[in-house]
């Protein structure tokens, strides 16, 4: 894993380089309903959101775990901006590596949410 873009000293988080992102890691990360929810919210926003922007029905430590799995699989990029940890989709990397995958998964998740009323 390579370090993130320069951040406050000692606050850079490790991210996989584009060529280190593996399909099975991405699919595993997106197989969890909470992580898929995070990705859907990031995609809907189209920019970056802080961790506190997400209202997940899980503990803070579980939320932290979900963000770490998404970051380590290459689905999101996390950077510190002051004291806030910003989260953004690595959609360009994912689209280059796996064309159409993210769009297909997001569309399928939206259809499922509509079908299940969530």
From TrEMBL:
The keyword Transcription regulation applies. Keywords: DNA-binding, Transcription, Transcription regulation. It comes from the Bacteria. Pfam families: HTH_20. GO terms for molecular function: DNA binding; DNA-binding transcription factor activity. CDD domains: HTH_ARSR. The keyword Repeat does not apply. Residues 15-109 form the HTH arsR-type domain. PANTHER family: TRANSCRIPTIONAL REGULATOR, ARSR FAMILY (PTHR33154), TRANSCRIPTIONAL REGULATORY PROTEIN (PTHR33154:SF12). This is Helix-turn-helix transcriptional regulator.
């Amino acid at each position: 894993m390579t370090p993130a873009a320069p951040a406050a000293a000692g606050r850079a988080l490790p991210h996989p380089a584009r060529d280190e992102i593996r399909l099975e890691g991405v699919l595993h990360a997106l197989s969890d309903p909470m992580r898929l929810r995070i990705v859907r919210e990031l995609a809907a926003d189209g920019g970056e959101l802080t961790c506190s922007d997400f209202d997940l029905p899980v503990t803070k430590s579980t939320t932290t775990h979900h963000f770490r799995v998404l970051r380590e699989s290459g689905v999101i990029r996390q950077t510190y901006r002051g004291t806030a940890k910003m989260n953004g989709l690595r959609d360009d990397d994912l689209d280059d590596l796996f064309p159409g995958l993210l769009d297909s998964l997001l569309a399928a998740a939206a259809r499922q949410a509509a079908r299940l009323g969530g």
